[in-house]
Specification:
The chain is of the alpha+beta class. Helix content is 33%, strand content 26%. The chain has 8 helices and 11 strands. The strands form 3 sheets. Strands 4-3-2-1-5 form a 5-stranded antiparallel β-sheet, covered by helices on one side. The protein has a 4-stranded antiparallel β-sheet with strand order 7-8-6-9, with helices on one face. Helix 1 (2-14) crosses helix 2. The longest helix has 19 residues, at 21-39.
Amino acid sequence: DLHAALAFRLAAEHLTTLLPAATRSYLAPHFDHARRLLEGLEAQGLGRWADRVRVIHRHQPLRAPDLDPVIFECVQTAVLEGRRLSIGYRRRGEKAVRRYRVDPLALVFKEGVPYLLGTVSKEAYLVQLSVHRLVSARLRDEACVVPPGFDLDAYIAGGGFGFSLGPTPLELVARLDPDAGATLFETPLTLDQRIEQAPDGWLRLSATVPDTRQLRVWLRGFGALVEVLAPDGLRAEMAAEARATCARYDADPPARNPTGDRRSS
């Protein structure tokens, strides 16, 4: 019916990369039928719905990396069937290809970029492999070994994909410009977040947060509209970055060549 057709069209637009290849192939005729059905009803409400609803990201959007479809399907199959992989992997900035045997545990999409979460060879710790950096992948006839107590949701909640810098959470205390911090009343940073208004009109934020690079990116996004008060180490880190930024902007800008490109003098 029309409601199912709309659901299929939205699934085709937003969920296809999350589905195993076999599932995509199975659903392809349904996706096509739903598209044709809704195109014939553009003058009606449901026919227009998909053209009037959009999903946008809070941060600066980046183009998704190119994926080798054969390698991506192999990775999806390994995760689906719980089988080991032999892969060739090129780390960022390297030309050499490293060879690994991977026990795949999960496929996680962050801002449209797929990461393979698993263990490598006999190492006990978890690694995150950017799928677009795989140059080869081969399924092995061996079942992957899941580390005892592994919990994907707990791993993510603990800052695993915020690029963790330590296992111990931080007791963050910060001052925020009232306009910049207004969204935190509606979309809290954490469940234990506390916000008080200081005598100078600024907001005082307290929250227990994972110690991650993502936290630092979030704080940097406020620029001069935030001041980290605690912990001391994070305050010193943010202060050093602010001084380095000021020094860079106080210096003379790089010279421009006749074409308008900046070049270091």
